Amino acid sequence: MIQAPRGTSDVLPDEAARRELLEAHVKRILGAAGYERIETPVFEDTELFSRGVGEATDIVQKEMYTFTDAGGRSLTLRPEGTAPVCRAYIEHGMHKLAQPVKLWYLSSFFRAEAPQRGRYREFWQVGAEAIGASEPETDAELIALLAELLGAVGVRGTRLHISSLGNPETRAEYREELKAYLHAHEVELSEEVRSRIDLNPLRAFDSTDPRTREAMKDAPKLLDCLSGEDAAHFEAVRTLLDDAGMTYELDPTLVRGLDYYTRTVYEFKSSELGAQSTVGGGGRYDRLMERLEGPPTPASGWAAGVERMLLAAGELPTPPSLTDLYVAVAKPGGGPTAFQLAREARRAGLRAQLELAGRSLKGQLKHADRLGARYVAIIGDGASTSLKNMESGEQRELSTPEVIPTILRGSRLS
Ligand code: AMP
Known about the structure:
Helix content is 36%, strand content 21%. It has 14 helices and 16 strands. The chain has helices at 13-32, 46-52, 58-63, 82-91, 136-153, 168-184, 191-195, 210-216, 228-243, 288-291, 306-312, 335-347, 361-370, 403-409, and strands at residues 36-37, 43-45, 66-68, 74-77, 101-110, 122-131, 158-164, 249-250, 262-270, 278-284, 299-305, 325-329, 352-354, 375-379, 384-389, 395-399. The strands form 3 sheets. It has an 8-stranded mixed beta sheet with strand order 1-5-6-11-10-9-7-8, with helices on both faces. Strand 9 and strand 10 (278-284) form a beta hairpin. Bound molecules: adenosine monophosphate. Residues 80, 111, 113, 118-120, 123, 125, 257, 278-281, 303-305, 307-308 line the site of adenosine monophosphate (AMP).
């Protein structure tokens, strides 16, 4: 039996209804702040990600679905949305528009990760990007919009972690300083951390080994090494969040898995999720546009996982009855009349379905009830139809052309 590939899943109607609700919140919240939708191709030139996301990142090293097409081009299923949006910004000369250009997307992404709860190989993200904006207000507004979306969707137990990564030059200097510190404290570090000092010194902050954790308490922190301008920018973002009454945890160990971040970075975590607790995150990426050979353009944005948001949300309200009229047939040969009546009802703005499975009349009424239909029209022999109000149980004979006006008037049947 053929099954969906590992790490992928079908979106069945109940789940699709929850996603539609989520999408409605996205449109309302981001639309009100002037963000407009963009969608980019499912696959891109592989180089976009190796250059944009960063050759040394886990995503590019291990997680990309890359293939060569018949023309010998290396293509990759998009693992994230920011690099494609920046590519589109450059390709369509959007720097000539009034800045910032504020965009959002809701699309599927692909990463070859080991699947577990909240981590899939195909997953969906909502993303928002403000391109051409350097002000700290941009970062604070984006964080507030993500918080609002999580609140509207009903994501429970959220905590906001924020930090600043400064700029790549400061970061390189800091890395050397941290390496020197780790080498000086080698005896106190776990074997694992010790073996990776030169490869990935920042990972030492994530260690669960008690002695290593103790040793890391006094390790230099990137936040203390920021340049004057970067520190002032971060201070301004924090003041805006404080003034907005938003609570957050300053998390100097926050390192995002993509190379392109500068200055502000943040993540929203939810206590409702297990190991994969980050529902959404983002930050500023002032150098990415240049890496893609575009004009130097400051920018900031976030992405939030749709599956994780829905996992961490309680029950979303289910939409009410979706059927106004069910058209049943009492006798064989009533099909064409039923077909016409259902079409006319939809043209008149009613939600109408007709019998398609050859059920008995009793079976049809049962099915109409299951669908939550407000009315059932039972087609007799041609001209006359019996209309039943499913809420009151009343039933009346009508001429078929009178069925729709009667429902629209919502009038009593007897
Ligand atoms: P990232 O682009 O890694 O910052 O991811 C942004 C958000 O997308 C995360 O916070 C998750 O909610 C979601 N996400 C990332 N990777 C996966 C995955 N493999 N499966 C499901 N959701 C994911």
